[in-house]
Automatic annotation (TrEMBL):
Protein name (Swiss-Prot/TrEMBL): RNA polymerase sigma-54 factor
Gene: rpoN
Species assigned in the record: Runella rosea
Keyword field contains Transcription: yes
Domain RNA polymerase sigma factor 54 core-binding: 108-305
UniProt keyword list: DNA-binding, DNA-directed RNA polymerase, Nucleotidyltransferase, Sigma factor, Transcription, Transcription regulation, Transferase
GO molecular function, one term: DNA binding
Length: 477
């Protein structure tokens, strides 16, 4: 089993014929620490031959041939030799108990916390109104038709058709429209809106102030210009000054783009903390790389179980299959660790200046093939070893995929990482005049002046990768 797996990792000629075991190992290499931990837990539950703990001895325990694991089960009759002593015991069980527990030892059932969703609260608002049974049914259906953000993407006619089809009663479009109008007056403001423009208008209807009327007019008639921040056209078409437009923009900025946000959502999303797969420490000029195996338990073969279970051909076949699976898992984990360490040490060697300082500008251009060629592995193997993996460094947790960047030739002929160009681009955007932000052509010219000749579409690609909006959306009054 070791030879095929070793050949899989070290050979670069595996594109034509790959066995199922090799495919399984490739998928195994792609697991991160959390996924591997869960995989081991599942294997421990499914495979009785496998157990946690270091190997007791160096004695190998291999699967047996057709003859079976053992010829005779171990004699366990001694465990039942005292049965006659208790067979005729007619003492009730409760008389053998000792009541030596205090009141403080009582166990209580923990209280259950009930979570009320925003949909339940909204239905409760409808139930407080003087509605008949038919209207209550329609209100529940309309609430369930809302999106998770509180928008209503269905027309009254389509909802009426759905209710008629599912409930078996004919519903008029006007009946649903009455419920929708009630919904649009409930809290939070904006419920039942058709789109963002409608959502903002519903919220403005409940506000008071000198800017509310002109804000409503602006959103109703010039919403596209407002979204594109075409401020000159807005001031001209609405006959307002720059100061008035600033107040209007500030007022609209206080509105919610979604009726239901934050804690009002009916689902609680829990994100696992990032668990690094590698731990990198720097001591002067020395950089040490180790795997984060604190969550991965050591595994061994449960030899006693394998010896006790046997006797029949079917039992031996079952034990042998579980034994082979356990041996494969233990060997695959070892191969995974060796491959990951070899790959990470090569990456650290290629990016030594970066790991010593943490300065992103010192990142050198590096692709997967650069690592694969230095350790004689396939590019797909390096991709699986680094995909979804993180490393703990003295300057924080980093995603390994962020270390792989393409190179760009500067005007001096030096090859630099595109990450360095992105940092210069972000610096230029941060220092621009927000009333007159730079467009992509101007940014490309400024980068060229600094020695980074890149095209306008390349600037646009870098800007999108860094979530920097276009010039029109970065503009403020």
């Amino acid at each position: 089993m070791a030879a095929p797996m070793l050949n899989l990792i070290q050979s670069q000629k595996q594109t034509l014929k790959i066995s199922p075991a090799q495919i399984q190992l490739l998928n195994f290499l792609q697991l991160n620490t959390l996924e591997l931990e869960q995989h081991i837990k599942n294997e421990l539950e499914d495979n009785p031959i496998l157990e946690e703990g270091p190997e007791d001895s160096k004695e190998e325990f291999d699967a047996a041939d057709e003859g079976g694991l053992i010829t005779k089960a171990e004699d366990r009759t001694q465990d039942y030799m005292d049965w006659d002593e208790f067979r005729d015991d007619d003492t009730p069980d409760y008389r053998t108990r000792i009541n030596n527990f205090s009141d403080d030892d009582n166990e209580y059932t923990p209280m259950m916390a009930e979570i009320t969703t925003w949909r339940d609260e909204l239905k409760e608002q409808f139930h407080l109104l003087a509605l008949n049974e038919r209207q209550q049914l329609l209100s529940d259906f309309v609430v369930d038709s809302l999106t998770d953000s509180g928008y209503l993407n269905y027309s009254a006619g389509s909802i009426a058709d759905d209710v008629s089809f599912t409930s078996g009663m004919f519903v008029e479009e006007e009946e649903v429209q009455e419920i929708i109008q009630l919904l649009r007056k409930m809290d939070p403001p904006g419920l039942g809106a058709r789109d963002l423009q409608d959502c903002l208008l519903l919220q403005l209807e409940r506000l008071q102030g000198p800017e509310v009327a002109i804000s409503t007019k602006l959103i109703k008639n010039n919403f596209e210009d407002f979204a594109a921040r075409n401020y000159e056209k807005l001031m001209k078409s609405n006959n307002i000054t720059s100061d008035q437009l600033k107040s209007i923009v500030a007022l609209i900025g206080t509105l919610n783009p979604q009726p239901v946000i934050g804690s009002q959502t009916d689902s609680l999303v829990i994100k696992d903390n990032i668990v690094p797969d590698y731990i990198i420490t720097v001591d002067g000029d020395l950089i040490d790389v180790e795997l984060n195996n604190r969550r991965i338990p050591p595994l061994k073969i449960n030899k006693s179980y394998a010896k006790e279970v046997g006797g029949t051909r079917a039992a031996n076949t079952y034990v042998n299959s579980k034994l082979n699976a356990a041996n494969w898992l233990i060997e695959a984990i070892q191969q995974r660790e060796n491959t990951m360490l070899k790959s990470m040490r090569t990456i650290v060697k290629l990016q030594e200046d970066y790991f010593k300082t943490g300065n992103v500008r010192l990142l050198k251009p590096m692709v997967l093939r650069d690592v694969a060629e230095r350790i004689s592995m396939d590019v797909s193997t390096i991709s699986r070893v680094t995909s979804g993996k993180y490393a703990q460094t003295p300057f924080g947790v980093i995603h390994l995929k962020d270390l792989f960047t393409e190179g760009v030739l500067t005007q001096s002929g030096e090859e630099v990482s595109n990450r360095q160009i992105q940092l210069v681009l972000a610096e230029l955007v941060s220092k621009e005049d927000k009333q007159h932000p730079f467009n992509d052509f101007q940014l490309a010219e400024m980068l060229a002046e600094r020695g980074y000749p890149v095209a306008r579409r390349t600037v646009a690609k870098y800007r999108e990768q860094m979530d920097i909006p276009a010039a029109s959306l970065r503009r403020i009054l």
